[in-house]
Amino acid sequence: METIRLIIVAVGGQGNLLASKVLGEAALISGVPVRMSEIHGMAQRGGVVESAIVFGDAKSSIISDGEADILLGFEPAETLRAINRCNKKTMVITNTATLMPFTVAIGRGIYPDVENVKELLRAKTAGLVSLDAMKLAKEAGSPMSVNIVLLGALIQTGVLGFSKENVIEAIRRRTKPAFLEKNLHAFELGMKAAQLS
Amino acid sequence: MHKLLNDSPGDKIMLLGNEAIARGAVEAGVAFATTYPGTPSSEISLNLFQMSQESDLYFEYSTNEKVALEVAAAAANSGLRTFCMMKHVGLNVAADPLMTLAYVGVTAGMVILTADDPAMFSSQNEQDNRYYAKFGGFPMLEPSSVAEVKEMMKDAFELSESLGQPVLLRTTTRINHSNAFVTFGDIKKPDIQGRFIRDPHRCVTVPTVSRGLHVKLLEKLEKAGQLAESSGFNFVQGSGKFGIITNGVSFHYVEDGIKDLGIEDKTSVLRMGFSNPLPGKMIKAFLKGCDKVLVIEEGEPFMEEAVKAFAQEEGIVIPINGKSKELFSRLFEYDPAMVREKIANYFDIEYTPAPKMDITDIPEIPIRPPNLCSGCSHRATFYEVKKAAKEMDMDIICPTDIGCYTLGFLPPLSMGDFVICMGSSVSSSCGFSKATDQKVVSFIGDSTFFHSGITGLVNAVFNNHNFTLVILENDITAMTGHQPHPGVDMMRHGFDTHGRINIEKIVRALGVEHVSVVKPFKVKKSIDIIKQALEFKGVSVVISQEPCALYAKGLKLLKPKAFMVSDQCTDHKDCINTIACPSFYVEDGRVNIDADTCVGCAVCAQICPENAIRPLKK
Fold first, then answer.
1. Total of domains in chain A
2. For A121-141, what is each residue's pLDDT tens digit?
3. Do B86 and B80 touch, CB atoms closer than 8 A?
């Protein structure tokens, strides 16, 4: 099949790696080849965490700058920071809820205006879906479900070609049973938000 | 049951590279495994540790890599299939046993895995450990993918047994930390009862014995070279006059690049998976079929130099290139677009790279460096040492060590002036205190202290050095994902099978004259005690005891009780400017505390001049 390259950027602790695993499982269920690459270790201590997921027939498991087909950002400034991974045809999905870097808190940097971030993303790529995933996660019952809300938005766009049922099955297999109901709710809310976006 | 003990061959599952490696070991019937954790290898051992609790596998977290390799060497000389894994710099620690184990060899399969880290995602250097295979005399295997590394593990054990020699399996981060589908194979039941058969003329390496062993090592390598010629891990893909020789993850970038450039019918690719000794005959035959050859390998020109030497032996004069200013770098990691472009340039293929995204109008985005967690006890200790030194008007230099606390070098704490390797905080303090008249205060974690800090402290006492060592005892190896170390209470993890070593007793037993223990969340008291340690002439040790907040939360030893900033705040911002806990944020110019992440260590509450930070009433 045609290769689809997805980059997910997040801040350590936002559940990016779990979201990647759910997508990998969904690919397995859907019969789509997939390779993923992630960075662990020091970066996880509040730093930026990036996953690269390559669906389809390409062999590489990482994605070069400018070659992402989809960019999924868990935090708006991080989404913008990853703009060099995109090209004019890239579809961008971003959370609008901010997580201030502590460099901003101690006055060593200015956080960009979120509306401006959205405008820039929209102008430079093929399209932007933005949603307040934190608000929706809380609505679903847990701030930890931000990752699943964003997965819902990603699936709603249809770019990966995965059926909703297959992704729900992947969520069942890969997330803790105690969080399943909240996660399924979060997934629905993410899908709905992307539809309206 | 652990997912990697699944005994249904044919099942297909998404695995992390490190999980695939652990599964490969199990399928190979590994009986004995040792390690010291280090990124990017850590999940291999974590999975083996978990599996050892429900299978016959013996697994241990050893004190350091040298110990791990020596423990493993004994098992592999007692007839047990043995696996020893570590990160690339760990192999430096284990280099002493490694170099002579090469002479002694093994009586059962032994695989030594080195997890290299090109681009240094989580390491202090990006050394290319393929040279250890050549240096010591080990057959070496290098996988290109997650699925391949599982199969390679099994072949590595077979290869080791056929030669009586440990095999080096070299991975890079993009193997260890990639995920892909893997199909389970049969699990081989391990032989778990070893027996050592005395063989002093092989196993006792006095000079007369070693002279004979070196001869035998060269014979083994000769045999290994023949095996490399026919190994299925070395193969040619495609045909054509453009030649590419490659290894590891670069192989897949090459495959994608050739396809994207549409030169599949013009290009032959030689993939080296059994890469020490390199198969000379195979490489020479390959060169003869090419007009021009490009060697694509991350890191050093390990293959390139050998390939050029083989060409010289055969009188082959075609261009052979790899590392150069115009082509590939010895720095960092490669990526698919870069490999595609270099291939196009080298073979004169028409290719227009996609235009780069214009980012000139993107505002500067504040950096987000990794940071000590909310409620991390290291933050408190760093603050207290800094404050104590300041109040004593001392200009201190702070050698530090390898662990989460290395992050203390970042502002505003700025505590960390020198680090080169595990354990170097203590020994370099010896040097700084003699070479300068500056006050030296160094930091080391508990796991690192056991790993290689103790010897430095012995040196300090013996040679009568003058510095203060702060041991950050947080009860776990935190950075690599909470592995145990010899000071950990294993009963907390449900093990009644381990000893426990008390750091304070060790320090006192070594003859350190000034030893104190602080609880870093008691700020004022800690500062007072640290001041006494700083005043002491000679070696003083401060042990700062507080469990890692993440670890304690995981064990439910810590129940977070968030704090808040009350109206009494008059905006000094001392909290943010001095300790910069990630739970702080500023809204409308005022400091707030994020109740979702604050664990309630109360350090900020103790340094607030207005006492404005208080427990949040729910």
1. 1
2. 999 999 999 999 999 999 999
3. no
